[in-house]
Specification:
Strand content: 5-15%
Distance between the termini: 53 Å
CATH superfamily: Creatininase
Bound molecules: zinc ion
Oligomer: single chain
Number of domains: 1
Structural class: alpha/beta
Number of helices: 7
Order of helices and strands: HEHEHEHEHEHEH
Radius of gyration: 19 Å
CATH topology: Rossmann fold
Number of strands: 6
Strand order of the largest sheet: 2-1-3-4
Largest sheet: 4 strands, parallel
């Protein structure tokens, strides 16, 4: 029988065992927000959760999968119906508290798997809070950072920069593979910001050198940013498989990582 891996299915003695087995705690974090007229609000939760689940399912004796965090920071999407926005400090503190609870129970290694671009700075801080204020170490990875560059170059058809930003070729491909029943391709259309330059653009393949995010409705008519018409389920399958392979590798590397003692040089 395959080992249990869903955290919420464990009893407390089983959690104690999972800790002594040095399992890595994997926490998917998404957001609930508009993703254009063709993708569901749950897109970022769904991608982070399903990729994490597939990775943990492959190595159930080495990791546990936490229930996902659904709500996060996305004020800039509020002009579109459906978006649920949480203030930055609330979100950082909430995720930090989850990590500190895991550390309190003895988990030493925690991985945050992120599904939403604007979560990056907040989850970076949350991971540092957990690492700095507990005996555990916590790392964070946005799933698209795990797409191998050669695979991306081979499959990508939309223009860079801009083609892969939001509800785009990449996210729509992944949804077409994971949950085609939730994708309305008849409503998918390209949407690129009018003002785009080497300093001001959005693209998941490579962030622009300048940190800047204004209200989404200022530069997107549809709520999409990029070209979802270039998406396909086959691309999605290749992206997801590659990300899951690397996530398994990453979880194992984090598990094997030695936590060196601190040295107080006062
Ligand atoms: Zn998204």
């Amino acid at each position: 029988m395959q080992a249990k891996y869903r955290y919420e299915d464990f009893t407390w003695p089983e959690i104690r065992r999972a800790v002594s087995d040095r399992r890595v705690a994997v926490l998917p974090v998404g957001t609930v927000e508009q993703h254009g007229p063709h993708l569901p609000l749950v897109t970022d939760v769904l991608t982070a959760t399903e990729m994490s689940r597939r990775a943990v399912e492959r190595i159930p004796e080495e990791a546990v999968l936490l229930p996902s965090v659904y709500y996060a920071f996305n004020e800039h999407h509020l002009d579109f119906p459906g978006t649920i926005a949480v203030e930055g400090p609330t979100f950082v503190n909430y995720v930090s508290d989850i990590g500190k609870s895991l550390a309190h129970h003895g988990f030493q290694k925690i991985l945050l798997v992120n599904g939403h671009g604007s979560n990056v700075p907040f989850l970076d801080i949350a991971a540092r809070n957990i690492t700095n204020h507990s005996n555990a170490i916590c790392a964070m990875v946005p799933w698209w950072n795990l797409v191998p560059q050669d695979l991306l170059s081979r499959l990508r058809e939309s223009d860079f920069p801009g083609g892969m930003a939001h509800g785009c070729e990449l996210e729509t491909s992944v949804l077409l593979y994971l949950r085609p029943d939730l994708v309305q391709m008849e409503h998918a259309a390209p949407d690129f910001p009018v003002q785009s330059s080497e300093y001001f653009y959005w693209d998941l393949e490579k962030p622009s050198p300048v940190f800047f995010q204004e209200f989404f409705s200022r530069y997107s008519r549809t709520g999409t940013s990029g070209d979802p018409t270039k998406a396909s389920a086959e691309k999605g399958r290749q992206f997801v498989d590659a990300v899951v392979d690397r996530m398994v590798d990453l979880i194992r590397q984090l598990r094997d990582r030695t936590i060196e003692p601190r040295v107080d040089h006062h």
